[in-house]
Amino acid sequence: MTSAAKVRHAVGRIRWYVRELTGESAYDHYVAHTRACDPTAQPMTRRAFERERMDAREADPREGFRCC
């Protein structure tokens, strides 16, 4: 493996870690799960998914977004 390939591999692993840590990959996981469970099901759009996700997080005080 060349040094450029090693750098690309390391950058890819860091990108994966950051996406998992920040929750950016949650939609990708949702789509994969939806297709695995029912291939004919139409997954929500990314916008609808994020809206539902934020509504659920704001409604649950244990998530830490709201104090009241």
What does this molecule look like?
It is flat, with a radius of gyration of 17 Å. It contains three helices and no strands. The longest helix has 20 residues, at 3-22. The protein has one domain (3-63). The chain has helices at residues 3-22, 26-37, 46-59. The model has no long low-confidence stretch (mean pLDDT 89). By secondary structure, it is an all-alpha fold.
Mind telling me the C-alpha Rg?
17 Å
Q: What is the element string, with H for helices and E for strands?
A: HHH
Q: Give the CA-based shape.
A: flat
Number of strands: 0
**What's the tally of helices?**
3
Cα(first) to Cα(last) distance is 54 Å
Find the structural class using helix and strand composition. Answer: mainly alpha
Largest sheet report = none
**Helix fraction bin:** 55-70%
Q: What are the low-pLDDT stretches, counting only 5+ consecutive residues below 50?
A: none
Total discrete domains: 1
Mean residue pLDDT: 89
- In terms of DSSP E residues, the strand content is under 5%
Organism: Streptomyces niveus (Streptomyces spheroides)
Protein name: DUF466 domain-containing protein
InterPro entries: Sel_put
List the helices and strands and how they pair.
Elements: H1 3-22, H2 26-37, H3 46-59
Features:
68 residues, mainly alpha, 3 helices, 68% helix, 0% strand, flat, DUF466 domain-containing protein, Sel_put
Short description:
This protein is mainly alpha-helical and 68 residues long.
